[in-house]
Design goal:
two-stranded antiparallel ribbon, 31 helices
Amino acid sequence: MNEPLIALPRRKRRAAAPTARKRVVVLGNPNTGKTSLFNRIAGTNLRVGNYPGVTVEHTAADVQLGTVDAELVDLPGTYSLCGRSAEERIAIDALLGLGGHEAPDAILLVADATQLQRSLYLAIQAAELAVPTLVALNMSDEALAGGVDIDVAGLSTALGLPVVSCSARTGDGFENLLTRLGWLLEDPTRGLSTFRTALPPAFEPTIAAAGALVADWLPGTADPGRTRAQGIWALMSVEEAGDEEPTPAAIAEGIQALRADLAAADLDLDEAVASARYAWLDSTLDRLVTRPPGSGRGVTDKIDAVLVHPIWGFGIFVLLMTLLFQGLFSWSDPAIGLVEAAFGLLGDGVAAVLPDGIVQDFFVKGVIAGVGAVIVFLPQILLLFLLIGLMEDSGYMARVAYLMDRVMKSVGLHGRAFVPLLSGFACAVPAILATRTMERRRDRFLTMMVVPLTTCSARLPVYTLLIAALFPATIKGLPLQGLVLAFMYLLSLVTALVAAAVLGRTVLKGTNQPLLLELPPYRRPAAATVLRMMWDRSKVFLTEAGTVILVCTIVLWGLLSFPRVDPASLAAGVSIDSATLEGSYAADLGHALEPVIAPLGFDWKIGVGLVGSFAAREVFVATMGVVYGLGEVDSESATLRERIRAERWPDGRPVYTPLVGLSLMVFFAFAAQCMSTLAAVRRETRSWRWPVFMVVYMTGLAWVASFVVYQGGRALGFG
C-alpha cells in the first residue's frame, strides 16, 4: 500500500492538558470489520459476526486519542445513509444529531480494502456531510496478499479526506490509525472534504429547496455543501408523515411535494445519484487500484459453487447441523458429568455443615439443586456457540441466509429475515432487535412474531435433559440422540416458516421484496473474536442463572416446601419429603392444571415446571431439580436424569416415556415462555397488542401440537 508521506506526532497515552471530550462515530458497511476495529481501539466486548445485521445498536467507550479525550461510538453497519431501514436511521440520526444524538466531531469510516467500491460509496456520502472524516482501509493485509495495490495517497487526494491502511485482525497500521485520528481531532479542518456528487443541472433547484426546507430542523454547520447533501438525503429518505416517521409533519409534506415535482418532470433522483457516484468510483478506482491479471474471488467462487448450490448446498447445511447436534452430546457429556459431580459435592458439603431443617433444605434442595440443574448444561451451550461462531466468522452463515432466501420468499418473508431467525437460535431478544435491519414495518413485525419459534439456547437444557434421560444414544447404529435434537431444531425452523406463511397472508399481509445480501469472502475465523462471542452469549445464560433462575428457584422452593408437615402426623412408611411435596402450594397449583395438561401426557409435577418456565424456559430444569430434590427417590445421589427415569404413576407405569418426552419438547418448542422476549417485542412494536397476540397464538399452538403428538403416538401403539 502506498501511504501518504506525512510527518505525524507520536501517540500520547495521557494528555498534559486535555481538551473537552470529543465524539467520534465509527461508521462502515457490514462485514468490513468495523466492530472488530472498534474492539481493538476501545477494548470493549461486542458480538462480531460475518453477516449483515449483527450490530443493531450503537455502543460507546471512552478512549484517549493523542492529546484528546474522546467518546468512541460504534454505529450499526449500513450500506448507505438513505435512512430507509432502522439501522440506516440510527446511523443517520447519529451523524446529523437527530433523535437525541449528539452531533459527532469526527467520523472514523471503516472501509474493506478488498471491496473498495461498495465501501467508498458510504465514504462519499460522509464526505459530503461536512463532518471531519478519517477513512480506514481495513483488511489491507488481505488485499495486499491478493496482489491488490491501492494508491492510498491518491485516494486521499481524490476524496479530499485522510486515508490510512490497517488490519483489525493483525493490528497492522493500528498505531498510525490512532495517531491520525488524534491528529484529526486536534484540527478538524484536516478531515473536511469539498467533494460533491455531480448531478444534471435540472435537479439542483429541487435539491436547494429541500436543503433549505430541512436546514432549521437538522443541526450542524451552514456549509453549502452540507446543505446540498442534506437536501439530497431528505429527498431520498424522508417518507410520508406517520406514526413511525420522525420527521416533522410540515417538513415531510414539503419533501413529498418536491418529490412529486421531480416525478412530474420525469426526473429520478435516486437513479441519478447512484449512477453519478458509481461512475466516479469506477473511474477513480480504475486509476488508483492495481489488481493482478485474472484476479477475483477465486477460491471463494469455487467453494460457493458447492455451498450455495440449491441441492448440494442445502444438503451440506443439514449434514453440518446434524453433526453439530450429535457433537453436543458426545463431546460435552464428560464435562457435564464433572459439573454434576461438582454440584453434588457442593450440596453434600453444605448439608454436612448446616443442621437438618428448613435452612439446609433451602440451600441444598432449593438453591444448589435448582441452579445446578441449569448450570450443568453450560458445557453444551459453550460448545454450541463455539461451533456456530466459527461458521459465522468464516462467512458460511451468510451463505445459509442466501440458500434459505428461496424458502423465505415462498412463505412471504423477506430474505433478510433469515439473519434474525439465525440469531434466534442463540436468543430471541437480540434476534428481535436484529429485525431493525429490514426496511418495512410489515417485514419487521412478521419476523418478530415468528422468531421466538426458533430453538433458542434456553430450550437446549430442556431438550438435552429429556433426550439424555429418555432416548438411547444409538439405535441400529444411528446416532438417535443427535437426530432427535436435530429434528427439534428443524421442526422449530419449519414451524416458524409455516407460521410466517399463515400470518403473512392473514394478520400481516404484504408483498415480497427482493433480497440484497452480500456474500463476503471466506476468511479464517479469528480465535479472539469467536471466543469473545461465545463468552458474551454464554454470559447471558449465566446471568439469568444467577438472577431470574435463582429468584424463580427460590419462589418455587417456597411453593414446594410450604405448608410444612408435622413429622408426628405421618403414617408409617411415609417420608416427610414426600408428604411435604404432596401437600404443598405448588402441588395444589399443579393439580389444578392437571386436567388441562393430562391430555398431553403430563402429570402435575410437570405442570409446576411449565408454570415456572414462563418466566424463562430454562427455569423448567431448575424446577424439576427442586421438585425431584424434595420428592422420594430410590437413591439420594441420583442425578436429575435418573430421577426422571425413576418417576412412576400410582399404578407403577413410568411417568416419563420417549413419547411423553417428545410431547413435552414439542410444547417447549412452540410455547411463548420468556418474559424477556415479550418485553423486547413490546419495546420494538410500542404496543402491548403484539406481545399478547404472541402469547395467545404460540401457547395455543404448543398445546395443540403436543396433544397431536401424544394422542397420535398412543393411537399408533407407542406407550
